[in-house]
């Protein structure tokens, strides 16, 4: 299986974005960039590469202009939200 997120261009983009040392673009707080390695895989505040235009809406995975720095938890919370369907608005009680 080929996952573009495992590819070298994606890793390079991730490293470049991390090197910018920017705060989380979602919540605005600093990202603890000292968290890295195996620990970062689970840490909720670890740096993750997020995308301004979600991939699900046609955003480019590898475009630096579409790359944003985000906490893991902010990134996943946002991702979950866009993945969730519209709430049932016609529900009657
Ligand atoms: Zn955040």
What is the structure about, briefly put?
By secondary structure, the protein is α+β, with helices and mostly antiparallel strands.
Structure description:
With 93 residues, this protein is an alpha+beta fold. It has one domain: DNA Binding (I), subunit A, CATH 1.10.30. 26% of the residues lie in helices and 11% in strands. The chain has 2 helices and 2 strands. A two-stranded antiparallel sheet has the order 1-2. The protein is globular. The N and C termini lie far apart (47 Å). The mean pLDDT is 86. The site of zinc ion has 7 residues, from strand 2.
Chain-wise SSE layout:
Layout: H1 8-19, E1 47-51, E2 67-71, H2 72-83
Antiparallel strand pairs: 1-2
Low-confidence stretches: none
Strand content: 5-15%
Average pLDDT, rounded to a whole number, is 86
Q: Biggest sheet: strands, sense, closure?
A: 2 strands, antiparallel
Number of domains: 1
Strand order of the largest sheet: 1-2
Q: In CATH terms, what is the architecture?
A: Orthogonal Bundle
**Number of helical regions:** 2
The count of β-strands is 2
Query: Any idea what the shape is?
Result: globular
CATH topology: DNA Binding (I), subunit A
Classify the helix fraction into a percent range.
25-40%
Radius of gyration: 15 Å
